[in-house]
Amino acid sequence: MPHTSQSPTVLVAGATGFLGSEICRQLKAKNKIVKGLVRSTSDPSKLAQLKEWGVETIEGDLKDRASLDHALRGVSAVISTVSSTLSRQEGDSIQTVDDEGQSSLIETAVAAGVSQFVYVSFCSISSPFPLQTAKRKVEQQLAESGLEYTILQPTFFMDIWLSPALGFDFPNAKATIYGEGGNRISWIAIKDVAAFAVASLDHPAAKNQMIELGGPEALSPLEVVRIFEASQGKNFELQFVPEEAISAQKESAPDPLSESFAALMLEVARGSEIDMQHTLDAFAMQLTSVQDYAKKVRVVAI
Questions:
Q1: Residue 301: pLDDT above 70?
Q2: What is the pLDDT of residue 87?
Q3: pLDDT, tens digit, 9 for 90 and up, residues 22-62
Q4: Which ranges carry the NmrA-like domain (predicted)?
Q5: Model pLDDT for residues 131-145, shown as the tens digit of each residue
Q6: Which of 65, 85, 72 is nearest to 19 (CA)?
Q7: Between residues 22 and 300, which one has the greater pLDDT?
């Protein structure tokens, strides 16, 4: 019996990003038919990697509704990881991408007869800021769209927040600590968030659910530093950024993105613990620990 037309196709929006590409890799490992939504400006090496995995890439942009109509033809499920925070092109902003762009993707999915939509958002944060406002608006729209949905709300990604890009410069044994460094965070690995996104397509416990995601244990930034010091056999040089300074940075931010980054730093200072017991009872996953991550990057750093 021919296999092609009846097999469900999954579109991954944000396919060249850290999370989107890992979702594509895991989907292909499960023999899913995968389309990756990419842009004409996407990194050629990332496109080549997707093609090597067997992902069909299709050009489109959340700011261009016609391109989404084209990309969603024949698609049965969408996983969206798109955000303007890390990869920005001309015209990208929280307003045009995280708000209006995601909204347009949901509307297009409804019009195209897509049956399922997995949206990667982030965990609830106490103080309001533009990125969170956009995410919550999109979550509400998705929940009311009539699509079968899963909203994933991960806490801080260890691969990003515990990396040199955001001041955790482990190759040089230096770390910027937001606040006093004593409040705990349930750091989560990108590959584990990807695994939940992939599992959500077929798991009854994910149907029409909002799921908070964290790692296997909550650790303070100072506890994380001690893990890295033990792993690398070096003492870290620490630079503390007081909470008051981050609050002032948030208040005086020149644009919505700067304000949002300051708000996220503030949340790192205040802590973000997620109890994963109930979720792990349903999904039975082995989560990556900060110790695992420290061992992995130690090999890279040497």
A1: no
A2: 65
A3: 999 999 999 999 999 999 889 999 999 999 999 999 999 99
A4: 8-293
A5: 999 999 999 999 999
A6: 85
A7: 22
Instruction: Describe the strand order of the beta sheet including 9-13 as a list of residue ranges.
Output: 56-59, 33-38, 9-13, 77-80, 116-120, 148-154, 209-213
User: Could you write out the three-class secondary structure of the chain?
Assistant: CCCCCCCCEEEEECCCCHHHHHHHHHHHHCCCEEEEEECCCCCHHHHHHHHHHCCEEEECCCCCHHHHHHHCCCCCEEEECCCCCCCCCCCCCHHHHHHHHHHHHHHHHHHCCCCEEEEECCCCCCCCCHHHHHHHHHHHHHHCCCCEEEEEEECCEHHHHCCHHHCEEHHHCEEEEECCCCCCECCECHHHHHHHHHHHCCCHHHCCEEEEECCCCCECHHHHHHHHHHHHCCCCEEEEECHHHHHHHHHCCCCHHHHHHHHHHHHHHHCECCCCHHHHHHHCCCCCCHHHHHHHHHHHHC
**Is the pTM higher than 0.85?**
yes
